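Before going further, learn to read the protein records used in this course. The integers have meaning only within a learned vocabulary of local backbone shapes. To see the layout at work, look at the sequence and tokens printed below.
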Amino acid sequence: MPRRGTGPSVRDPELYEKLRDKGDSKEKAARIANAAASRGRSKVGSKGGKSPSYEDWTVKELRERAADLDISGRSSMTKNKLINAIRNH
């Protein structure tokens, strides 16, 4: 059964629902679904630069990124917990 309340800001509700069912946050699912609607699903993952893997970042860099994303509790998180929080934001 489809979820209700995806709102008018989600331009690809089918993809949004699939991402939410997979466990992605509402914000992340909406961001991806809207990007897919704008550029096409096949092009969504191809955009972007060559950022190193989060495992290659320092804890300080990860905490700064977590601060940018307004993740609470970041100051006491381990490197692995920071990576997980950033990836699942």
Observations:
- The mean pLDDT is 83.
- The chain is about 50% helix and 0% strand.
- Helices lie at 13-22, 26-39, 59-68, 79-87.
- The radius of gyration is 15 Å.
